[in-house]
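Supplementary Methods, section 5.1.

A reviewer requested that the exact input to the structure prediction be made available. We therefore reproduce it here, unchanged from the version used in the analyses.
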Amino acid sequence: MNESDPRTIETVAVIGAGTMGHGIAQVAAGAGYKVILRDVDREILARGIQAIERNLAKGIQLGKLTEADSDKTLQHIRGTTSLEEVSSADLIIEAVPERLELKQEIIREVESLSSKPFVFATNTSSLSITEIAKVSRHPQSVIGMHFFNPVHIMRLVEIVMGRATSEEVRDVALEVARSMRKEPIVVRDVPGFASSRLGVVLGLEAMRMVEQGVASAKDIDTAMELGYNHPVGPLKLTDMVGLDVRLSIAEYLHRELESESFRPPAILRRLVSEGKLGKKTGEGFYQWNDNTEGARGAHPL
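The structure derived from this sequence is encoded token-by-token as follows.
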């Protein structure tokens, strides 16, 4: 592959079929790429494919897609539990849990299996791209592509340049993001990048307001949705992202930035310890129905 020519990206592999992974696979397939969606867990992989099918069906219902668009997207996606199949891709995007060691291990494994050049993109929302790339034999080909949830709706992709990332790989990531009908921004590799640093501190402050009895979770979200035109309030968004994910990111930013703004509130730690992780468990700051996109009521705190 000639890394300076984004047209050579034909196959995109996505590692991790969870909330972010299956969304990335959907938009990549919708852009016409051949997509390999890989997860170690067959059940999670099956749920990821089913979620894509539901998203496409809803798009048809809303008049945003045709049946032909849906069929074409699904035909471009192949699910697998094999990492060997991933090694044939031109662009590999990992969307696994936010653990540095896990992401580094994936780079090592894929590089040991592949004899061809490829771009490795991490969907991390806060971890250092430079640190992730340290284990790579080709750190110039490692970049951040931070998508937003729900991936098939949110337009932003944060392109994060590690210390060694080449301009050619940056251009590949930009072109791929645009082909997915996303609006990419380029940021430097600093803790929290641009979006997480702002978004997490807003969410943590909203949690403190709930702790202090300022207002209910629903009313705080409504304030941001109607007062500041946010499409989703910070607490509902936390539920959608996952409270465990938000806690991990907050702990990392608190440690790295040494700022009290990022100290995780007690309410967040308590909900995570109780297994109330948001939409994926049915309860967080809101109660969630399995078949609804919205919350049906504020969590009694």
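The chain has a mean pLDDT of 92. These observations are discussed further in the main text.
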